[in-house]
Specification:
By secondary structure, this protein is an alpha/beta fold. It has one domain: P-loop containing nucleotide triphosphate hydrolases (Rossmann fold, 3-Layer(aba) Sandwich). The protein is 34% helix and 23% strand. The protein is built from five helices and six strands. A six-stranded mixed β-sheet has the order 2-3-1-4-5-6, with helices on both faces. It is globular. The chain starts with a strand and ends with a helix. About 3% of the residues have low confidence. The structure holds guanosine-5'-diphosphate and magnesium ion. The site of magnesium ion has 2 residues, from helix 1.
């Protein structure tokens, strides 16, 4: 099995921490231009039965300037081409405007989306359910997966769920 997975989410939610944990090989950067329109392969996870290619889709965030509109279109097209989107949020911070903006964009793509709630090591389990409740009515997420990218909790399980979708 093999497929492409995009990881999106506000800065600091833990995207790089997650990638560093799961990705064995760092793939050479396709272009060193910042905000390139080309999707950047961030790394590949491989095991006996699967290859997951993680790609970066710049521009899904709230645009700060005019060029942002173009980047947004590019980003949306990228999201349409992947097999799965991981939308990562921070369990500590809950749902904010940055998340609302991304969720609006997700309405425009048919690609399945996993809501990945990261940093669960920082919250009490009781705080997780209200957060899940808040999100689950906003988008038909294919899965909702709480993890700690830093400590590794549930990361293996998330990889299994990703593989089932490829
Ligand atoms: P990115 O901007 O989405 O790529 O976020 P980073 O991976 O750079 O992480 C931002 C900060 O959050 C760093 O200080 C990480 O160590 C921290 N972080 C990431 N994942 C976790 C987690 O699961 N638990 C905790 N406590 N901190 C985390
Ligand atoms: Mg990062």
């Amino acid at each position: 099995k093999s497929g492409f997975v995009a990881i999106i989410g506000r800065p600091n939610v833990g995207k790089s921490t997650f990638l560093n944990r799961v990705v064995g090989q760092k793939i050479a950067i396709m272009s060193d231009k910042p905000q390139t329109t080309r999707n950047k392969i961030q790394g590949v996870y491989t095991d006996e039965d699967a290859q997951i290619i993680f790609i970066d889709t710049p521009g899904v965030h709230k645009p700060k300037h005019k060029l942002g509109d173009f980047m947004m279109k590019v980003a949306l097209n990228a999201l349409r081409e992947v097999d799965l989107i991981l939308f990562m949020v921070n369990a500590e911070e809950g749902f904010g405007r940055g998340e609302a903006f991304i969720m609006e964009r997700l309405k425009e793509v048919d690609t399945p989306v996993f809501l990945v709630i990261n940093k669960i090591d920082r919250v009490h389990p009781d705080e997780l359910l209200p957060l899940i409740d808040q999100y689950k009515d906003l988008h038909p997420f294919a899965e909702i997966v709480p993890i700690s990218a830093l400590e590794g909790n549930n990361v293996e399980r998330l990889l299994e769920q990703i593989k089932e979708r490829l």
